[in-house]
Amino acid sequence: xxxxxxxxxxxxxxxxxxxxxxxxxxxxxxxxxxxxxxxxxxxxxxxxxxxxxxxxxxxxxxxxxxxxxxxxxxxxxxxxxxxxxxxxxxxxxxxxxxxxxxxxxxxxxxxxxxxxxxxxxxxxxxxxxxxxxxxxxxxxxxxxxxxxxxxxxxxxxxxxxxxxxxxxxxxxxxxxxxxxxxxxxxxxxxxxxxxxxxxxxxxxxxxxxxxxxxxxxxxxxxxxxxxxxxxxxxxxxxxxxxxxxxxxxxxxxxxxxxxxxxxxxxxxxxxxxxxxxxxxxxxxxxxxxxxxxxxxxxxxxxxxxxxxxxxxxxxxxxxxxxxxxxxxxxxxxxxxxxxxxxxxxxxxxxxxxxxxxxxxxxxxxxxxxxxxxxxxxxxxxxxxxxxxxxxxxxxxxxxxxxxxxxxxxxxxxxxxxxxxxxxxxxxxxxxxxxxxxxxxxxxxxxxxxxxxxxxxxxxxxxxxxxxxxxxxxxxxxxxxxxxxxxxxxxxxxxxxxxxxxxxxxxxxxxxxxxxxxxxxxxxxxxxxxxxxxxxxxxxxxxxxxxxxxxxxxxxxxxxxxxxxxxxxxxxxxxxxxxxxxxxxxxxxxxxxxxxxxxxxxxxxxxxxxxxxxxxxxxxxxxxxxxxxxxxxxxxxxxxxxxxxxxxxxxxxxxxxxxx
Amino acid sequence: xxxxxxxxxxxxxxxxxxxxxxxxxxxxxxxxxxxxxxxxxxxxxxxxxxxxxxxxxxxxxxxxxxxxxxxxxxxxxxxxxxxxxxxxxxxxxxxxxxxxxxxxxxxxxxxxxxxxxxxxxxxxxxxxxxxxxxxxxxxxxx
Amino acid sequence: xxxxxxxxxxxxxxxxxxxxxxxxxxxxxxxxxxxxxxxxxxxxxxxxxxxxxxxxxxxxxxxxxxxxxxxxxxxxxxxxxxxxxxxxxxxxxxxxxxxxxxxxxxxxxxxxxxxxxxxxxxxxxxxxxxxxxxxxxxxxxxxxxxxxxxxxxxxxxxxxxxxxxxxxxxxxxxxxxxxxxxxxxxxxxxxxxxxxxxxxxxxxxxxxxxxxxxxxxxxxxxxxxxxxxxxxxxxxxxxxxxxxxxxxxxxxxxxxxxxxxxxxxxxxxx
Lengths: 659, 142, 270
Known about the structure:
The complex is a heterotrimer.
Chain A: H1 6-32, H2 39-61, E1 68-78, E2 81-89, H3 91-114, H4 121-140, H5 144-162, H6 169-200, H7 207-212, H8 217-234, H9 243-246, H10 252-261, H11 266-279, H12 285-314, H13 319-339, H14 350-385, H15 403-417, H16 423-439, H17 446-475, H18 494-514, H19 519-524, H20 541-561, H21 573-579, H22 584-629, H23 637-656
Antiparallel strand pairs in A: 1-2
Chain B: H1 6-26, H2 30-55, H3 59-89
Helix pairs in contact in B: 1-2, 2-3
Chain C: H1 5-11, H2 18-34, H3 43-62, H4 69-90, H5 94-114, H6 118-142, H7 150-153, H8 158-182, H9 186-193, H10 226-237, H11 240-261
Helix pairs in contact in C: 2-3, 2-8, 3-4, 4-5, 5-6, 10-11
């Protein structure tokens, strides 16, 4: 669409992270000098600039089928290998950055209202801008080192923002938990880099080089497994999902930006890059088999997460936690989609199959970002009005006093449930179709994909149910307002409602514009290593099934929650278990944390009661010797001078007499 | 030998330096200690001048000028400090300043008694007339 | 009777000879006896031993050679300086010690003159005897004490201090001797190499390309007073930055002295 030279695109690509970074620095400086109230302006302009450049890049790379590589100098060099600041700008990166910066922009604007008068405004906006910059680096990275930089950057920002209200013990604990759990994934990513580096014999881990190297199938398998673990950690998939619900201790806009829309999708993005890439254009069967086995694992984890998280969401009373579990569940969908692997079937090559799967995942990622950010911001608006109370048992019937928030939340909930023609419908059905087709092919895995399909379908039903449970509990029924809200419960100011409305419009339209028209499909064809066939939108069996599941879920929620006693537990024991997060956190506590703590105490006992006396015994020797000479330190300067002069004479004598 | 050579100058400066060292270590009056330091500086200056002479360039003499400058600064500051210290303890005895010793050590004190002060002369009384007063020996040392 | 220093150097027995050890130990024994102590100084014995020590050293240094004017004046000046130093260290009364320091300054100034540094001689006398000592006396008047006092009538570790001093002299002489033993004579060595005219009343220093200042036909500055001109050229040529820094240092020291000496409680800075 745009015709920009390659050099121009490279420069614009550099600007995408650079402008938010500049915003972050100016916010930090403003915060330092007590101009914190101007920080939203600085952060907003930085992110706006990032969005403009990202949009320009996205529009101008769409027709380029080769990825544009920008190298901006050498980062570091070891021996003969140099690791450069390499960006790889293609359609996928363009679409992702445009989405990230767009949502960040509205979230920054929302935050300007939400964080108004917070004493740490400068810090908050600096971190958000820094996060956007790091996310852009992650997406645009052209080699694994730069990717790792962005990966860790978003991790650090997430940690700092979850613990933003660090004086609150829960927030500090949640930040620590998030950091430690994602660390497991980060170590796996580092392991993948080391493995690939060892086998390629170079540190130059540019994607192109990794994809085109004739790697051993086993190396492909293990490096992909490590990448998968990294993605599982970052995207909070089972069994590393425990940090995400706790991360809701951060400010709500942060939950919307980092823990719903962008950072947690980094794992999906990484796999969408590497699954089709590692398959390569070759038809090397062992290698395809290796990639496919990793995809199976990813699908299994995704299905487990999608289903378990949906079940857990059913019993939560905390509005933000419901949304957090739904995020887990939707990310599980994306992982399931990525699982559809490329057995040779029909006239499609394996690359086409896995590209189609990756497309479905990315499509859902994009639409999910819009409606999930919308839902989180709406809940933030609710919190704002309710005096930071988020327990759904304490308020209800808010539709009357928060009309705009109510409308926006409803649109987001419908999109999340997958009701046509909202955005969630198209993307979720894309996934269902991919799984359905996988289940109906003649490959050996078709039974597996069928199971995944039915899990996905049931999860779609659960999703609709818990989303509308939350909706009915919050916005319908008798008006009830918690004491904390005081008597000033009112609709949020325009600076907060405008982003809601914009995102609601997006949630409403994005799916319609990108899905059935095939425009996103057409756009992402430009992604290197992806091979997409023209697709046409048509009504299919999985689509109907999905819609029915969604409507059933909504109907059930309506039956159970719109009339009856609001605090009942209609599902009984299931809800109790779900409220306790299916006891997974407790199992982790019992299996990992407690034994480690016990071992630590044992070590402490060894150290304190066994070794310390020994060490102290040794320490008495110098203490005794020192005690002999203590009296030399009598504070008289002339003694010191005498000692110095005598010492000097002895040394000089050593040089002259005893030479 | 016809005239003094470099080693002779150096020997003299060594003697001056060492006497200054002895003075600094042994004497307890702050001012005398400081004078001893200046004595050591004189020894060093003599060293420089001698080297300048026998090396045949003037850098040594230039150094001595800087030495004089530093000595002047040092004297100003040290005397100011000595004054301040005198104000706090009303004595120039350096042994009164031993607060930096080990905590449990006793203060070093002098147990030998000081000799009696020489009796101050009585104020002169004029005789009635005629006889000149006996002139007492000057008791006042400066 | 006395063996010359250079002769001893050649003999290789120089540092451990009794001719060296003797005067040094005598002198410092004298100092030890003379140092103030509560039960009275051994004035007579100490003075005798001190003078003996200085005389011995003098004899050693001059090596018993035939006296000419230069070596005699050297002898006198260094004797005065050493005697003054002895007085400075041993006199009980600080004011007298300060006056002894003036004597030292005068002796050293004479030695400066012998070492072809007439300007420094003047500067030394003016700065030390003229300025610094006067300040000392002022301070002494401000901080007056009556004898006997702990400060003046006692010494700290006199024996160790004297051993220390003796050791220091010995080591330095040893180093000088070892070094001198390697070359026959500094003067002769330099003259042989024709580096500079060391016999000139002023050590020549010339900046490259500068026309000679008042040189006689031998290429040697004519008058001793030219030393000042050459010293000035050195200072403001090669050492200009150091001169500026010294000026800054003087200002800072002045301010510091004012700040420190201010009475506290009177709204002073410290």
